[in-house]
């Protein structure tokens, strides 16, 4: 079991359910990883990244396996986190439309910042 911000038992379960609800997966709380789609696994990974309330999250292609609606929902969550928790979220992506959600965009080409 994952230690969530030094909480255990019922309190940790409540936090996990809240995080799963934030990524639209509360209804899948009792499912095994093999029972989840690729997009659902991706959203669970994001919820896990949030579990200990980090100051920074590095997300590599966080919307890669998500449909457009779920991608938008995840980006709304990113905006909320940035504002509410003062969490810095560094996102690496090929999806140009995600730039509009960023406070700052850094472009790389052939391993160099341009």
UniProtKB/TrEMBL annotation:
InterPro entries: ABC_transporter-like_ATP-bd (IPR003439), ABC_transpr_LolD-like (IPR015854), P-loop_NTPase (IPR027417). Residues 11-64 form the ABC transporter domain. One of its GO terms (cellular component) is plasma membrane. SUPFAM superfamilies: P-loop containing nucleoside triphosphate hydrolases. Gene3D superfamilies: P-loop containing nucleotide triphosphate hydrolases. One of its GO terms (molecular function) is ATP binding. This is ABC transporter domain-containing protein. It comes from marine metagenome.
């Amino acid at each position: 079991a994952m230690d969530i911000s030094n909480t255990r038992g019922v309190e940790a379960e409540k936090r996990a359910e809240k995080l799963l609800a934030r990524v639209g997966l509360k209804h899948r709380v009792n499912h095994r990883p093999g029972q989840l789609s690729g997009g659902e696994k991706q959203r669970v990974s994001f919820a896990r990244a949030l579990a200990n309330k980090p100051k920074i999250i590095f997300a590599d292609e966080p919307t890669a396996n998500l449909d457009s609606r779920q991608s938008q929902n995840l980006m709304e969550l990113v905006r909320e986190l940035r504002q509410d928790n003062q969490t810095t979220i560094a996102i690496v992506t090929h999806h140009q439309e995600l730039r509009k959600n960023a406070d700052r965009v850094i472009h790389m080409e052939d391993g160099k910042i341009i």
